[in-house]
Amino acid sequence: MARPFRPVAVMRAGPNDHLGVLLSTYATSAILAAAGGHEGEGGFHTPSIADFFPSGILFEGTIFQIDRIWIIRIVATLVLLSVFVIAARRAKVVPGRFQAGVEFLLGFVRVQIAEEILGKENARRFVPMLTTIFLTILAFNVTSVIPGLNLAGTSRIGVPLLLALWVFVTYWAVGIRKHGLGGYLKANLFPPGVPWPIYFILTPIELLQLVIIRPGSLAVRLVANMVAGHIMLVLCFAATQFFLIDSAGSGLMAFGVLTLPAGIFVTLFELLVAFLQAYIFALLAAVYINMSLEEEH
Fold first, then answer.
1. Does 6 have pLDDT greater than 70?
2. Are 156 and 69 in contact (CB under 8 A)?
3. What is the torsion angle, in degrees rounded to the nearest 10, for the CA atoms of residue 254, residue 23, residue 147 and residue 273?
4. CA 58, CA 287: separation in Å to the nearest integer?
5. Measured on CA atoms in the order 223, 226, 229, 234, is the torsion positive or negative?
6. Residue 233, class by beta-carbon neighbours within 10 Å (0-12 exposed, 13-18 middle, 19+ buried)?
């Protein structure tokens, strides 16, 4: 039986993980824009939300519109599938570096997420789902720092929301199958040991958490972090170009010595965030499923 798990620290890692840095990003953008002139006049061009809604490449204006982010998602999916097909076909008893790397990722999800939260017996049922979630998010996140792509496939709400809905349907289905609809709702909405007047406050909150807060927080946390990361990256490297090229010969060139290392640091930081966001999403998915399996909530 898996031990009870309450991810207090993890749950607090909300969509404002980048908030302080992002606020300073916009402040810096304003300063640079003032120093470099207005948009379209050769001055500094600030990053914006418009970056995440590029023009359509095919079927523009329809529900089937294909744009840059869709292409990025397709590329990431094909690469991810290719990696595992190659690893499966070339699998050996004594793995090489490539096979060992793939096995490390699979083992990480199985041991550190599924078995750690759900226990070995329950983990077998959900390892495929959790592995798919983790690797999909990781692959889509990493595209934010790959030259030529430079946008995360998870930086628009569609994919994160779809994965969050998958988790939502799963933990409801698991809970209902385990306890029945009435038992599942009773265990979650009317936890034992609470004075009955408190239920008037607690029950609506718990219902809101079951239906909206859990899946909503999964999707919003992921999107917010990847949007903030992209804006930070664009700011650092656009500022470097502005200081070192557009402002060549002026006193502003000295600032490029700071913004270039900052861009490299943010790139490495974004790789860490890409992994952490995939881990947190899969971890919380396992936690929510485990909470539905517990006898008491």
1. no
2. yes
3. 120
4. 40
5. negative
6. buried
**The pLDDT of residue 297:** 47
| Helices of type H across 190-252 | 199-208, 214-241
Beta bridge partners of residue 58, listed in sequence order? 66
- Does position 176 have pLDDT exceeding 90, yes or no? yes
Query: Residue for token digits 């909470």?
Result: 291
Q: What is the pLDDT of residues 206-222, one digit of tens each?
A: 999 999 999 999 999 99
Distance of alpha carbon 164 from the chain centroid: 11
Query: Which residue has tokens 């239920």?
Result: 199
Report the chain's mean pLDDT, rounded to a whole number: 84
How far are the Cα atoms of 21, 97, 222, 289, 292 from residue 4, in angstroms, in the given order? Answer: 35, 36, 25, 12, 11
pTM score, two decimals? 0.83
The number of residues in the chain equals 297
Virtual CA dihedral for 179, 182, 186, 187, nearest 10 degrees?
10
216, 217, 130: which is closest to 170 by C-alpha? Answer: 130
For residues 253 and 243, is the Cβ–Cβ distance under 8 A? yes
Q: How far apart are CA 86 and CA 83, in angstroms?
A: 5
Indicate whether 34 pLDDT > 70. Answer: no
Query: Of the candidates 1, 12, 9, 5, which has an alpha carbon nearest to the alpha carbon of residue 287?
Result: 5
DSSP letter at 90 equals: T
CA-closest candidate to residue 293, choices 26, 55, 1, 48: 1
pLDDT in tens, 7-17: 433 444 444 45
Q: Which residue carries 């628009």 as its tokens?
A: 156
Cα-to-chain-centroid distance, residue 88: 27
